[in-house]
Amino acid sequence: MTGLVLARAHVEILCFFRERDAVVFTFAMPLVLLLLLGTMFDGVYPGSDVTSTQYLVPSMVAAGVASTTFVNLGVGIATDREDGTLKRLRAVPMPRSAYFLGKVILVIVASLAEAVLILGAGVLLFGLDLPAEPGRWLTFAWVFLLGAAGCAFLGIAASGLARSARSAAAVMNLPYIVLAFVSGIFVTPVRSIPEPLLQLASLFPLKWMAQGFRSVFLPDTILSQEVVASWEHGRTAAVLAAWCIGGLVLCLATFRWRGRRER
């Protein structure tokens, strides 16, 4: 089983990186947004030496992970469903779970590469300091893995909402953009967001991913700009783990191997 999963992941990774336009768009979009937003915001937060541009970097890492795992994965599966890839895979002696796990490994690899690029831009262009403490990198690891897995399962489940591959991008991007705004990805600081929108964002993994990444790359002096004066690691882990389990259940319950237009 493990060999089949790794073989499927290898195929998925090769197919992804051969599509140069998809690779460029996937990696460039969060970087371009970071550069644009970095030119719009300026200043240092009171009581801290963190600038508004540095505050944006960890949030954009979370946005990049969510975009790659949720949006790109959902669009990719909708395309596989329409072009007959899923139908052909059902006819080969391969567990269906190998297809899903291969996709998840692909988006985790792509998301990690994207995170490296965003953090590199943050260090080179905005003076972000990378942490030296191993504990902070351990926090990065579990936030990244739980967040990427949860968003990936949600992307797989949401792929069935699109009636065709053409409509998949619109279907997947709408909830992503809404959650990005209410989760404080494009707004600094997070506590400036109205309370009802913050409560909505707290129900989904993107807000907790961004908060977890900020706890890794920003000093505790910036907590005055957060919703509460704590990084809430326990709650972050619980919410992200719940979405991993809930997303998997939702994925298994709603996934369709055939398109809506097929009988």
From TrEMBL:
One Pfam family it belongs to: ABC2_membrane
Subcellular location, record wording: Cell membrane; Membrane
InterPro entries per UniProt: ABC2_TM, ABC2_TM_bact-type, ABC_2_transport, Nod_factor_ABC_transporter
Superkingdom as given in the UniProt entry: Bacteria
Keyword set, alphabetical order: Antibiotic resistance, Cell membrane, Membrane, Transmembrane, Transmembrane helix, Transport
ABC transmembrane type-2 domain mapped to chain residues: 21-258
Family in the record: Belongs to the ABC-2 integral membrane protein family.
Protein name as catalogued: Transport permease protein
